[in-house]
Amino acid sequence: MASTFMGAGRRRRTVRERRVREGALAYLLLLPSLVAFAVFVFYPLVKTFSLAFYRTPPFPGLPKRYVGLDQISGVLTSSEFRSSLWITVKFGLLTVAPGIALGLGLAVLAHQTLRGIGVFRTIFSSTVATSVAVASVIFFTLLNPTVGLVTWMLGQTGGTGILQDPTWALPAVAAVTVWQNLGFTFILMSAALQGVPDDLLEAASVDGASPWLRFWRVTFPLLTPTVFFAVVIGSINAFQAFGQIDLLTEGGPLNRTRVLTYYLYQQAFKSNNDGVAAVIAISLFAVTLVLTLVQLRFLERRVSYER
Amino acid sequence: MALPDTREASSDSGRRPRGDVRLTGVTKRFGDVVAVDALDLEVHDREFLVLLGPSGCGKSTVLRLVAGLEEASEGTIEIGGEAVEGFEAKDRDVAMVFQSYALYPHMTVRRNIEFPLAARHVPKPERDAAVREAARALDLGPLLDRKPAALSGGQRQRVALARAIVRQPLVFLMDEPLSNLDAKLRVQTRAELIELHRRLATTVIYVTHDQVEAMTMGDRIAVLTDGALQQVGPPQEVYDRPANLFVARFIGSPPMNTVAGRVVDEGEGLAVAVGSATLPLPAATSAAVAASGAAEVVLGVRPEALTIDGGVLPATVTLVESLGHERLVVCGLETGDLVIVRTPGSGEPFRSGDAVKLSAPTAALHVFDAATGDRIDG
User: Fold this and answer.
1) pLDDT tens-digit profile of B148-169?
2) Distance from CA of B175 to the nearest CA of A (A)
3) How far apart are CA B49 and CA B350, in angstroms?
């Protein structure tokens, strides 16, 4: 009996030893990315939170003053922050739903077996290969008050210009964003459409459903997981949009396009107000975190339509 | 039948819509591939017609043409005496049961069954009543609020059937509806389908590659291969008098034995020489063979018609498969052909290597033209 126990103990020990050795190797292999994460993600994250507790002095060189939560509550209740948050939300509303509707519409159009449809698929998805900067420059030219093609088509030549109009600047920037994201949305929706089994749609045809009914009662419900994914990703992108704002309007006119990221940028790099910028960054972090959690929650609960 | 039987009532007054289907010269091409080749087929009202053939023979395409999921390249299709060319699937008054069942995964069983009615804007109270009746007919009552993912294969199959019958269409189209069920459930569902057809008294076109399903379920069988119709007839007739070699070899398990032979004149009638043996033909067949002028023929004989009893055909036993109730004895003829003999499960078993002599009653011989494969018949 005793020898059996000893044997078992010895075996257990070797198993434990091996586990320790494997664990060490695993951490060793993880180390490079761990270092990268620490330097570029964790440290800035912690630093941001600490910055938020210190008021930045009016002149460089003076000591920072610890103010606890005062600065955070001060920024969050300021009219500037609130207007910026509202603009960001509006920007999200103007980009997410129209972007998905357009992408889905194009995907449905291109989801047909027609000669030469591949050309259209390529065109529709081509904006994935366009950077924010390129898209912005193209539209900056198109929307130019004197020589812009779009300005001319809208009969606005010689006016203030769309990007300079306090009412239309945000919709214009949103439109550019929708255009730029269209390729991605199109590809996403096309892939989802291909996942809808043909025989379901055929069954619906035989069951007497019109194309309209087939889409809304069969296709669309099966696309909802993808649509939901696109909504979350689109919202996160809307809250992180910066390039097109910077290149097209620089937050203007009259701060009407000053989304949170641009407000943050102004505070951090134009006004050198690290403390306020940190608070804005934390608010963006919170929004993105919530959106991500919502998505994870829903994706977990998502019905898998097993067939 | 528990379904509200409006159709039955109107049939008495002679106004019941006819559920007959007629295909005339129907051809379907996909690019260069001819899936269905000049098909003429008539399905009678209330008939259970089985489209039987190997996979890729075009039988599913025929069904899809009738359903309106494909448009024929040539020819006309009539349903209930009306040409349906250009009619969309939803306007053809047919219901289809798909091989995959094609249940809507995001809808409950109730919504699935209700869908054909909802799509046609049937008022809610009528819809509810019809769903209840269809669910009762297929024993789905307790499952109405479940989603398809929570059902077994057999239950899904019944939901698909309920969705088809709820609307009381003119014609049911069924595309291998039993092929995803396990063997035991398949036999059970086969019987249920026959009973369902009897109660509904509606035309059914049923596609399968399973000859047992075809034999047991069909009022008539239409055998297809390579998009062309080979034979249409009641199961027993197709079995007893296969129109050509394809049908002869396709129907029956184990399949019909076929052996090439040469026509010889024996004075009082024609006979067929197989190796050293000579098998005389019945008078009528003999006359038909003479009239056809065929010199090379293929003889067919069912395994159950052959006996090992010291007849004229010398053979060697190569394999014995015992199935309990019967034994299949595989014998090699002098010509090298293998034939299967069905013998009772009891009695002295044969061993491989045994030299035996086979006999086949003259009346049980099927004669086919070796050149065309067509049956030569008296």
Assistant:
1) 999 988 899 999 999 999 988 9
2) 12
3) 41
